[in-house]
Design goal:
Chains B, D: Keywords: Cell membrane, Membrane, Transmembrane, Transmembrane helix, Transport. The complex is a heteropentamer, with 2 copies of chain A (266 residues), 2 copies of chain B (255 residues) and 1 copy of chain C (307 residues). Chain A contains 7 helices and 10 strands. Chain A is of the alpha/beta class and 266 residues long. By secondary structure, chain B is mainly α. The mean pLDDT of chain B is 87. The chains are: A alpha/beta (266), B mainly alpha (255), C alpha/beta (307). The complex binds adenosine-5'-triphosphate (2 copies), the ligand Cc1ncc(C[n+]2csc(CCO)c2C)c(N)n1 and magnesium ion (2 copies).
Chain lengths: 266, 255, 307, 255, 266
């Protein structure tokens, strides 16, 4: 058996829809160590969101076993932060109240966490938007609010489904660096880092952030490649101009597209 | 002044409609062959309202108390039952047929039983009103609670919220438009219910006035009582609309 | 065959046996009438039906008829059913209300439309009691019996013909009556009414209807058991056990010297006008009702009472 | 067999609850001091149902027709009025107070008057039932129509859809959970309404049976009629649940 | 006056929220010619979606005037296709029925357009998903379905708000090429092209697709730069390896970030 924080063994998922079954995942086996930052890339519809939900214990897999911290997952696992693909903000709550929701749900005093919530909003460029309602925010702003919500309780495990998908390049950069800081890049020695499972469509983003990138094949999702990113940490913006960064980008591009030539994607 | 202006701008269609209905009614009674005891003219009703010898204040007070009590009971019990039904399929399967059964019972038919168990007075009439008005709240609450996006529930589950907290923080706010819609319905049902309660047994109240005067064919007073009842009903309905506006502005709908 | 609609004052009870008998035996048919008996929700309802032409004639309590004339109907009493008044107060033996004085300080119940309720001030006056010392509760007709049997109130006003119903609820011998007729109060009650239109346009049909109905009553008096069988056949929902005694008490109110002498259904002018006076005095009508406006003997045909 | 199995698995809580209530009721009547005329024992009601001399079939048929008619009218008129209210604020301001007024009128009080105008028979009773049952449909429809996400409306406007098409293709399907919830409420109200109509004047129907037998203190038969009424009510309610299931499976809620 | 298909003159927008007004757009003036492919880039929350809605006539601007095809916009303009930032699929309709919705709304016979709808779904990689309900699709698949819906009636003007935001690099590539084909790149001579206003967060995507890229500054949105992309058409994947492409990318990056150095973003 593997000894990761998250161990997936032949995990398969077939949705039973009215119009017939859809096989979303076909036998995923992987192990993610504590403190690892792992990105998940793969074509649209290959089962990334499904996999994240299964790991979180929100949906039971139809095949295989999942263990997190040694326990088999059969129900939602505790102490995680999750960013869903859609922001899913409660429309009757202000942004600040939305960010404080996890505290309320976990029975913690929201008043105590308010400074932290405000600090997170500021970090996400949403200072001053705390009292606004979700519908008064742009798409990208909503997504950032959802990110703040996931971070509120400082969870040791983060499951993130395209958290920066709706962000422009610059904001994305800023958020990526913030995420690395929060992940605990400064604490590399102390092993106090969080574990992150991060879905993205951006190859450079995956390379820049991760220790490892897992590449999934088209539906039904399988693991097509598992690439170790051996770039030095802490990662800096300058790193992106290096040859090693470019090489890993290309390697990932090839793993993803199956093409052997070079090239970039949009 | 501007508020009044806005109000009059908003409600002129009502006023026009009511004026039109009143005018045609008065015309029909005056020139048509309609007996006063069957359908009194608006003017007679007006006279009964202001110049008759009915002591309206006392009756109005009694009935208003009953209506408010009925409404509050229906709201509280209805929401509680709706939550119970949405809470557990077992409870739902046990309760729903039973509640449908209770709600299809014509309340007037069980009047003797009701009188014996409850006696007469303000409280039994409130109960009768609640009994007539609670069902929409139950159903709308249960349906509303079940109409939550699965994603929102996942949100709650991700944070390991206990089931009741998901109800309190997610399902119930999400169901508020349904609940408020039901409260609008129940506001009017509570009015009818309290009056029906008074029909069954009473010593005062607007329903008491209606039966008393109707049976001596003093229909204009009975109609005057109906007018008062509608006034109370409209005020209660308006209060619910206002409550909805203050409480759930995000769920703003039509009033 | 001429259509003729008769509005009963309630759903089928023993008081209605005569009309079903007349129908069943073809008395109406023999007179060329195709009669429909229609149920109503009390006297007010049957009066409204007759007054608006929904029915050609109907059954209603005289007090309500007189009041309705005061409020603009054009119906008239054209035949009497109970010659003696059925007005009465029921109570339980353990707390009996057997004479008017017993009523003071008590709580009585009745639907506001009940004649007992409307006429109570007059009854009180005749018997020298203070009507303000009696408090009345409005109740649904359906709740009357339960109200007294389960001691929610001290007594209820109801026709003496209802005794079997009360006994069914409270037990035989447990019910105490206070028939007003025994305490100096005499007033007409259940009667047959017709609309102005029927009286004017179809006098013959009305007269024939009354005669056939009285023949029905005659047959009921002659053979109550057979009458009840007919009622049961026609209206399977009636409970023979209670409706038979109910009908018999009604017959008792009709076996009077006046009917023996003048025939069933006869209206006595003095008694009728006294009834009108009582209503005028106690029911707060917008205008005073003239005795001649409420009844007519024009359509009366003498049908002899059997022995 | 498996369907039956699933059914029994789903409804055992109901059966248990009803069995428990029936047993306690029978016990109370047998050993307690409850008079048969007030609350007949379940066994007497059972006897009245199957061994009495009431010709149930005919009454059941009449009342069922009235109830179905009342329900359909309430549904159609209610949805139409709800659409009108959501359609235009002017219509809303004119109609809502008027409808609240109509709905607060105690139908039992105006039933005799109503039937004098309408006549007697099946159709007027349907109308009475519809009058009692239409309001929840109006309010829920209007609220449901207004609870659409602004984005969805923009979608319709982008394609330059005329307003009525946005109603038909977007607003109404979106409001279906509300409408179906209201139909569940109205299913039970239609039952009460039809019976109330029969209480006023009728020659057949279950309401007729109730009044007739109640006035001869034949309470067990009256209760048997109440049982039939509830059966019809439950079946109609079940039909609405089924309809909701087939028609709007995406809006699945609690039944 | 300008003579474009779309003319914006000092367009401003201030939202009135309960918690105070938010100035989203501050004086946007621009002209977009018929047949032009124009991209809109800018930081999250700068007012891109707002501007698109204003052009579509869905929201009135609070200042300035907008004309489309010579007519002042006061209500939704006809004959456009719009992709919103969120998929906004009707949950009670199957994917195919959702794609056919514009036909029904415009009073056209959906049966006739069914083959086209199925062809669009196939183009978007959704063959076989027509009978499914929206919730049975992944985020990226829903977005593609929304794209098909916008294209159904072959509208001459397309307003697209991050239509490829939730797509992986490869699918994104494919869709971009398809979009160029649909836009009418093959018809360059005949001037029968559509006009496209395209919001994106991807700089290479904007460069690859557009004739012009309008760069907006942070909220309240202003036009920070208006860059002509003079790359030859038809555009090919190979083009992305050219020096000219790289230069334009860099130029755009600088316009967007205000930084003068080189570098890439995620
Ligand atoms: N309905 C609204 N009410 C109030 N403010 C709004 C509303 N919609 C947008 N805003 C505000 O307007 C500004 C611009 O929003 P918009 O959605 O246009 O941004 P955007 O450029 O599309 O951002 P993104 O890239 O994140 O989607 C934001 O600050 C937002 O808070
Ligand atoms: N609730 C569901 N019911 C039925 N099928 C589903 C459901 N959710 C997802 N699927 C199917 O499972 C497959 C994987 O979906 P998933 O959302 O996991 O993809 P994804 O990798 O997250 O895609 P994207 O990048 O587009 O978000 C898809 O083919 C989708 O149609
Ligand atoms: C439960 C019950 N309710 C009413 C009556 C009939 N009834 C009693 S008094 C009265 C006066 C009407 O003129 C009528 C019709 C009854 N027998 N049983
Ligand atoms: Mg996904
Ligand atoms: Mg946007």
């Amino acid at each position: 058996m593997n000894k990761g924080l998250i161990d997936l063994h032949e995990v398969g998922m077939t949705y039973q829809a009215a119009s017939g079954p859809v096989e979303a995942l076909a036998g995923i086996s992987a192990s993610i160590g504590a403190g690892e930052f792992v990105s998940l890339v793969g074509p649209s519809g290959c089962g990334k969101s499904t996999l994240l939900r299964i790991v979180a214990g929100l949906r039971p897999a139809t095949r295989g076993t999942i263990t997190v911290a040694g326990r088999t997952v059969t129900q939602p696992i505790p102490d995680i932060g999750m960013v869903f693909q859609a922001p899913i903000l409660l429309k009757w709550r202000s942004i600040l109240e939305n960010v404080l929701l996890p505290a309320e749900l976990a029975g913690k005093d929201p008043a105590k966490l308010r400074p932290r919530a405000e600090q997170l909003l500021e970090m996400a460029g949403l200072a001053g938007f705390g009292p606004k309602l979700p519908r008064e925010l742009s798409g990208g702003m909503q997504q950032r609010a959802a990110l703040c919500r996931a971070l509120l309780l400082d969870p040791p495990l983060l499951l993130m489904d395209e958290p920066f998908g709706a962000l422009d390049a610059m904001t994305r950069d800023d958020m990526a660096l913030e995420l690395l800081r929060i992940w605990g890049e400064k604490d590399l020695a102390r092993e106090a880092r969080k574990t992150v499972l991060f879905v993205t469509h951006s190859i450079p983003e995956a390379v820049f952030l991760s220790d490892r990138v897992i590449v999934m094949s088209a539906r039904p999702g399988r693991i097509a490649a598992d690439l170790r990113i051996d770039l030095p940490r802490p990662r800096t913006v300058e790193l992106r101009a290096t040859e090693a960064f470019g090489r890993l980008n290309l390697e990932l591009f090839r793993a993803l597209t199956g093409k052997t030539g070079g090239g970039t994607t949009l | 002044m501007t508020k009044l202006g806005a109000f009059s701008r908003q409600y002129w269609p009502t006023v026009v409609l009511f004026a039109f209905l009143l005018a045609s009614w008065q015309t029909a009674v005056t020139f048509g062959n309609i007996r006063e005891y069957l359908l009194p003219a608006p003017l007679s009703v007006w006279n009964a309202l202001w110049h008759g010898d009915t002591a309206w204040a006392g009756h109005l007070w009694t009935t208003t108390l009953e209506i408010i009590g009925a409404f509050l009971m229906a709201a509280v019990v209805g929401v509680a039952l709706g939550v119970a039904i949405a809470w557990s399929p077992v409870l739902a399967n046990a309760l729903v047929p039973f509640l449908v059964f209770v709600n299809t019972l014509p309340k007037v038919a069980i009047a003797p039983l009701f009188l014996i168990w409850m006696g007469y007075g303000i409280f039994p009439n409130m109960l009768m009103g609640a009994l007539i008005g609670f069902f929409p709240v139950v159903i709308n609450t249960a349906v509303g609670l079940s109409q939550v996006e699965p994603d929102m529930l996942d949100l709650g589950r991700v944070f390991n919220a206990p089931k009741w907290k998901i109800f309190v923080k997610i399902r119930i706010p999400n169901a508020l438009p349904y609940i408020l819609s039901a409260l609008k319905i129940t506001a009017t049902a509570a009015v009818v219910g309290a009056i029906v309660g008074e029909f069954v047994a009473s010593q005062r109240g607007l329903g008491y006035v209606i039966v008393t005067t109707q049976s001596s064919m003093n229909t204009s007073v009975a109609f005057a009582a109906l007018v008062w009842i509608s006034v109370v009903g409209l005020l209660l309905y308006g209060a619910v609309v206002l409550l909805a506006h203050l409480w759930a502005p995000w769920a703003e709908g039509v009033d | 065959q001429e259509k003729f609609t008769f509005a009963l004052n309630w759903f089928a009870v023993g008081d209605h046996a005569a009309y079903w008998v007349a129908l069943d035996k073809g008395y109406y048919k023999a007179k060329g009438l195709d009669v429909t008996l229609e149920n109503s929700k009390g006297s007010g309802d049957s009066i409204a039906k007759v007054d608006t032409g929904r029915a050609d004639a109907g059954l209603a309590d005289a007090a309500v008829v007189i009041a309705s004339v005061g409020r603009g109907t054009t119906v008239k009493t054209v035949g009497m059913v109970f010659d003696k008044t059925p007005l009465n107060i029921f109570s339980l033996k353990e707390k009996p209300l057997s004479k008017p004085k017993d009523l003071e300080g008590k709580t009585l119940a009745a639907p506001p439309g009940d004649s007992q309720r409307q006429m109570f001030p007059a009854f009180a006056k005749v018997n020298g009691i203070d009507p303000s010392k009696v408090s009345w509760v409005n109740i649904e007709p359906a709740a009357k019996i339960a109200a007294v049997a389960e001691k929610r109130v001290d007594g209820v006003g109801d026709y003496s013909t209802g005794l079997p119903l009360y006994e069914k609820a409270a037990g035989k011998g447990n019910v105490v009556m206070m028939p007003w007729a025994d305490f100096g109060f005499d007033m007409y009650s259940m009667s047959i009414i017709a609309s102005a239109k029927t009286m004017k346009d179809r006098p013959k049909a009305l007269k024939d209807f009354l005669e056939a109905s009285y023949m029905g009553w005659r047959d009921v008096m002659a053979d109550p058991k057979a009458a009840m069988e007919i009622l049961k056949k026609r209206v399977p929902e009636v409970d023979v056990e209670v409706m038979t005694p109910n009908m018999l008490i009604g017959l008792g109110l009709m076996r009077t010297d006046r009917y023996a002498k003048n025939g069933i259904g006869w209206i006595d002018e003095k008694k009728m006008c006294d009834s009108v006076d009582l209503v005028n005095a106690y029911m707060g009508l917008p205008k005073k009702v003239e005795c001649k406006d409420v009844y007519s003997t024009e359509f009366f045909t003498k049908v002899a009472m059997p022995n």
